[in-house]
Structure formats: C-alpha cells, structure tokens
Amino acid sequence: MEDFINLINSYLFSDVTVFALLFAAVGCTLWTRFGQYYALGHGVSVIRGVYDRSDDPGAISHFQALSAALSATVGLGNIGGVAVAIALGGPGAVFWMWMIGLFGMALKMTEVTQAMLSRRFDKEGNPHGGPMYVVEDGFTEWGLPKVGRFFGCMFCVAAVVGAITGGNMFQAWNVAAVTNQYFSSIPREAVGVILAMTVAVVVIGGIQRIGAVAGRLVPFMCGIYLISGFYVLAVSMDQLPGILVMIFRSGLGLEDSSAGGAFLGASLGTAFIWGVKRALFSSESGWGSAPIAHSAARTDEPVREGIVAGLEPFIDTLLVCTVTALVILCSGAWNRTAEASFVSLSEVSITAAEAESGKWQLVTPILPSKSEESKRIQQIPVDQSGWQDGESVFVIAEDSDGRLFRVQGTVSLHQDSTYTATWETFEGKEPKIHAPGIFVNFAGASLTAHAFDRVIPGLGLWLVVLASWLFAVSTMISWYYYGEQAVYYVVSQGSLAKVFLFLYKLAYCALAFVATMPFIRTDRELDMWTTLGMGCMLVMNIPIVIVFGSKAMREYHQYIRKLKAGEFRKFKPQAVVDMVEGKLPEN
Known about the structure:
The protein is α+β, with helices and mostly antiparallel strands. It has two domains: about 1-10 and about 60-335 and about 450-545, Amino acid/polyamine transporter I; about 340-435, no CATH class. Helix content is about 65%, strand content about 10%. The protein contains 21 helices and eleven strands. It has helices at about 1-10, 15-30, 35-45, 60-75, 75-90, 90-120, 130-140, 145-180, 190-205, 205-235, 240-250, 270-285, 290-295, 300-310, 310-330, 370-380, 445-455, 460-490, 495-515, 525-565, 575-580, and strands spanning about 120, 125-130, 340, 350, 360-365, 390-400, 405-415, 420-425, 425, 430-435, 435-440. Strands 3, 6, 7, 8, 10 and 11 form a six-stranded antiparallel β-sheet that branches. The chain has a three-stranded antiparallel β-sheet with strand order 4-5-9, with no helix packed on it. The relative contact order is 0.21. The model has no long low-confidence stretch (mean pLDDT about 85).
C-alpha cells in the first residue's frame, strides 16, 4: 500500500505541481498589485463589521467565516507539520514556509473571490460555493456545461480525499501520539473514539454551529499557544539572532546543514521541498478548501470576502507556524543529543538478515537508562530507566558512501523489568553504526511538545496536549464541512442525497478512530497520507485558479477603485462579543 500511495504522490506532488503553485502564487501577487497590503488593512476593518449591512446575503459573519477557515488551517499542521518540516528539511525549510505564506495571501484572495462570484443558494437559503462551482460556471460560459460539471465532480472527489487524510486522519493521529506520549495509560484508540464523538456532535448543527464553535475556539486556542510560545522565545532571546540568520542562510543554500545530533542534515532542495509542502499543508493556499467556508459569509461584495481570506496565511503561517519553528530551533529539539547511549560501539552489531540478500538487522543488548538530562526534561524519576513499552526509537547508521540514515526500532518491556529494542531491517552496502546513541523518535506534534519541555519541563505536557486537542477538533469540524459540501455538489440532484450525506458523516467520524490505530508509525508514513490529500486538491484547483482567475481580478480591481474613491458606506464597528457570535449589524 505504501509503495502504491508513494507512486501516486510522486505524480501528484511532482516538480510540475510545485512550480505551478509558485507561478500561481507569485502571479496572483502581481495580478493584485501586492494585495497583501489590503488584506492586512482593509481586511481587518471588514471582519469588524465596518461595511456590514443587516440584509447582506449569507449564513455567517465575516469573522465567523474567517474563523471557520482558520480552524481548518490552524491545526496540527502548525504544531506537528512544522516539526516534520524541520526534522526532515532542517532550518532552511522555515524560510520557504515564509515565502509560501507571503505569496499565498494573494493566492487565497483570488480563489476565494472566484468562489464568491459563483456561489449558489438552495431553497432553504443556505449558501454553497467553492472551486466546483467556479469551474462549472467557467465551462458553461464557454458552452460546455457537462465538461464543467465533470471537472466540478473531480474536484469534489479530491476534496473528500483531502478531508479524510489531512483534515481528519493527520489530526487524529497526532493527537493520539502526543496524548499517549504523556499519558501512556490512555490508549490511542480511546483518543480516536473521543474525537469521533466530539466531531459528530458539532457537525450535526451544520455551518451555523461550526461557525459559532470556530468563532469562539480559534481566538482562544491561538491566544494560549502564542502567549506560551512568546514566553519560551523570550527565555531564549539570546539565541534568536543566530537562529534567524541560520534560517535565511540555509533556506538560500548559503549554509550547509551539517549532520549532528538527531538531525541528519538537509540540502537546499530538501529544505525547499519540505518547507513548501508543510506551508501548503498548514495554510492550504491553492487547495480550494477555504473558498468553501468563505462562501457562507454574509456579504453582497464578493471581493470583500476574498480580501478577508488573505489574512489566513498571515495568521497561520507567518505567525503561528513561525512561533512553533522558532521554539523547536531555539530549544535545540531538532538537533538534540541522544536520550541514551551504549557504553561503546562494540555493544552494537549489524548482521545480515536471514535469507534476505542486501538486507541487514541491527542487534543491541538491554537498553541503558536515559540520561539525567533526558529524565529532567521528561520529568522521569531518577531511579527509573525512562523507557516505555512500545516507544518508538532510532539510531543513526552510515552506509559505505558516508550517507547517514535512521534505523527505526520499537521498545519492548520484559518480565524482569528490562527494556530491549526490536529493529526494522534495512538496506545498505556494508552499513555501520555512526554513534552508539539511542534517540526517541519524537514524531510530529511530539517533537514540538518536547521542544517546550526542554525550555520549561512540563510545559509541553499541558500546552501541546491541550493545543493539539483544540486544534484538531477545530480542524476536523471545518474539514468535515468541506467534504460535506463536496458530497452535496455531486449528489444534490439525486434522490438519495440525504443517504450519501449520512454515509459520508459516518465514514468521516469512523476514520478519526481508524487513524489512531497503529498502522502509521513515523513522520514519513504520516506525510505520505497528507501528501495524497494535498496533491489531489492542488492538481485540481491550481488550473481552476489560473484559467478562470481573470474574472476575479477584474472584480478585484473594480472593488479597489471604489474603495479608494470612498464609495462604500461605513458603519460603527461591532462589539467584540457581537462579532464573535455573528449577530446581525443594527443598520
């Protein structure tokens, strides 16, 4: 299965996809004449209700629409995804995350404006919008409505895949991993059951309840996480200048990321690809997902909601992701020393795997206790070894060409209270162990939690576990809505629409449980699934933005001319409580 999915991903997320996305993002920036400026200024005024009228069409306020979209983007990608980027791409990946976040603001503005121009209202007055309607309208104007409907359905298939992988399984897996790391008595599957039930309760109420929950949850969870992150950075203030220089130099290829500690080093190309992938996963720029949420906003000006959407990549990538990245880098979690070490390399041996030519097996004795520093960080009593049954670990090996790689293993507890590790077989020509150290495999959100713990032991326990639960639930409910709207588009004209929507809801909640089962073990396996969903949506949505973007840009520039001329009537900003609750303005 892994080989098959990785083969699909090699086509979905190829160089062509990456450069098409960069072309679209940079192109939209130039097309809007650096519309990021209006997102940071005019967009803030819009979400405060300065331009709202009580008779505007739609279901939720600008603030709630932004919160619903942010609840999908500000999720475990900001905690776990950033950690994956740094673990596999090094500090240089952060630079490329910033670039995608900056240019992604204009791309998000464009795709949301497109969706607002093509949104529909059903018999009950509920709004529906997204790239599927954009591509259908576009081809209909060319006299090819059936072709438009076909590509609309294809995008919806991609949206459902994205919803169940990155929007659901990635979130559930990370929450289960970080919860089990600190509370080993709580089974991962129990986390999946709780998440599935929580999501089911919220999504029953539709977009109104999703918007109401998101409007309260997103500011709260972002506030707690950012305050804690800023405190950690203040403690490590002396390291920040050097870290920032390293990010820029590594991202531009001016400084090699040499091997050391748990990090194996990354080239410019590796930093670029991981930075782009994780920034895309976190901000969802170019996916076509956010337009579905924003299409529910109350407004009679399509461009206005597009400008509001430009705030998403700024908040998500340039703010929240940056705090996570700097905490990981300043704490040294990315390039840490081993949690435990054998006395010498002579205790470790590599033998040929039975009947497997070219495959090798690592053999190690009873695991030594974790170091005093590791016990202090993880708050482990000094009289205990510190290992947990089932804990994921790795050692660093070296092939005959001098390339370093990780050998993955799993810790096992024996009846005599000793711990050993079972190591996976690996391929390589005359491999050898690089160093006798054993590293705990902090995957995804667990690495971010460990980073907080390195600065303030115990902080990762409460902050990252709480944030992971809040971020995951908020992301999962918004992505449920995206997938639901995709299913609605495909089956809305059929007599069994309600049946298919119920089956989707059942499958979505069930997969939250399935993702917590132990078939995903490492960062790379987790990334494989998220890349599948992301690649499907990018391949379908980027051509829609490029081909049909001119109509949105005409509307955008017309709106900006009116804005500069002062043609839009302004009202008193709404109170914060009214803004969060989505109350209609009194005008």
